[in-house]
Structures are given as structure tokens and as C-alpha cells.
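Example record

One chain of 212 residues, shown exactly as stored in the release files.
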Amino acid sequence: MTHVLTEEDLILVTGASGYLATHIIKQLQEIGHRVRGTVRNIKDQKKVDPLKTLAYNPKHELELVEADLMDEKSWNDAVKNCTFVIHVASPVPTYVPKDENEVIKPAVNGVINVFKACANDDSKVRRVVFTSSLATICGDEFQTGKVYSENDFADPQISQPYTKSKILAEKAAFEFVNERKKRGEKCFELVVLNPGLILGPVLHDIIGASLL
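Predicted C-alpha cells for this chain:
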């Protein structure tokens, strides 16, 4: 079943201070939607204050709540009363970590923790849009002449840590939904997007790794 988004719906955007998330929030607010964003530290004014002025004179002010990808309990309050969730938050390292789990664990556990909250019995979430990456399809390098499709998954065992984190996180997303549906349990509609390159202005003064 396809769910239609209305102005009455409350939309959660995870990782609100991130480059992509700020654009999503701004566009949603500009067309009149109610938006809630998650940040790891709501007292971090350098990251939080610019989020309050992303859209000029919005119909609804941006609501901000604290949530951490590794903290399962934090997501129950974050998704409360939301009908749509846009899961953007995922670690993007500025260097290749010595321990790949620095990137992989937050990415994979984040998906599972967010999805668990969205599938709770008292959850109102009807659809989750998950931002993955083209890297999950083709890996770190394209194969010349190969036509890629949604059936392709890159091999995580020969991938750099960031690419591996995206592959395993997307696999976890599909497995979570498919297992619940197989067992006949309540679940939401899942949409996965795999962008290859995102261009546009920076909407705040925080220069994250994805901009480097």
C-alpha cells in the first residue's frame, strides 16, 4: 500500500545537522510540512541554531530532539507521533579508520535501532525512506561495460570501511523489513535511495566529511 504524505503528517529527519538532512528539512518546511529532526546534542548551539532558520517564515517551526544511532532507547521518543521517517544519519569518516567498526557499527546499529522504534506496536510510522549510496551497488569501483540494477550488491569483504558500512546497513534494512513481513508482523513501507553524487550549497557553517 502506498501512503500519501499530507501537511498533517509529522516527518522525522535523522541526522538533522548533516549536509543532506538540512536540504531535506528546508524543502519540507518550505512547502508547509511539520518536521522533527534528530541531533546528538541539542545543547550544541553551533550545530543546532542554524537549523532553526533553514526555511524563511515556515508554517511550522522545526522541532529538535536528541537521539544517537547507538542508543536504541533514544529512538522511541524520536519517532513518537511521526508517520514518515527519512533516515539520513550515518557516519562519514574523514580518514580510513584503523578499526572499521568505528564506521560500520553506528551505520548498521543505527538502521536497526531506528527501524525497531518505527515498528513498535504504538508507532504510527507508515513509511521509512532510507538514504543509502550508489556504493552499495557498484562498490568502490565501476566495472566497465556492466549494467547495474537493484539486484546488485557490492561485496563488503573487498570494500573500504565506509563503503562496507553502507552495504551492510542497506542489507540490514531490507532484512529487517523482509523478516517482519515473513512473520506477519507489523511493519512500515521501506523506500531505499542510492545517490551517487549530491550537489548544492552548504546551508550552515559545519563542514562535514561528506563535503571534503
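Notes: The longest strand covers residues 34-39.
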